[in-house]
Amino acid sequence: SYGGPAPAAYPPAPQHGGPQPGPQVPPPYGQPAPYGHQQPGAYGPQPAPPPAGPWQITVWQDREYFAAMMERSGPEGAGLRMPEGAPEQHLQLTGQQITIGRRRQSTGEAPDVDLSRPPEDPGVSHQHAMLVLQPDGGWAVVDQDSTNGTTINGAEDPIQPFVPVPLRDGDRVHVGAWTTITVRRG
């Protein structure tokens, strides 16, 4: 105690021009709010923009990729021929992950993208790679320590096993001897 009157905690309320006591009613829709009164959400956090649409993949036989693989494989790939006329596969990416590989004949277990369908790509492992949904809504590819590796956009060196590599719209993921998976944002 200092012996004097206690200081006022708040300055006195203005008598005119400020907010008046009692319930505040917002102005009719489309009219500006009076100073000091905000429309709900007018300056607060805005909702995130909607996602740009679902991601899709196209799985196809890539003659250029096959030719590059044959150059690199040397005598090992001498007898391998790329079949003609396989239809493209189209798949919308849903869920948290999409597995890529070949069906296991012994168990019948099949990946989401099954490359054992005719014409079977002999260079694809049973558990070759995986597409994984990222926190930002994009996708990444993860090689599952496949025998022949996974490359992106025609690169010669395969990606490291078990390391997610973010993908962009239009990227090409190469697996096996001739399979390319083109990733597109819807």
Automatic annotation (TrEMBL):
Which residue numbers delimit the FHA domain?
Answer: 98-157
Query: Where is composition skewed (Low complexity) in this entry?
Result: 32-45
Q: Which domain of life is it from?
A: Bacteria
Instruction: List keywords of the entry alphabetically.
Output: Phosphoprotein
From the UniProt entry, list the residue stretches annotated as the region Disordered. Answer: 1-57, 95-125
Q: Where is the composition biased (Pro residues)?
A: 8-31
Q: Return the protein name.
A: FHA domain-containing protein
The species this protein was found in: Streptomyces alkaliterrae
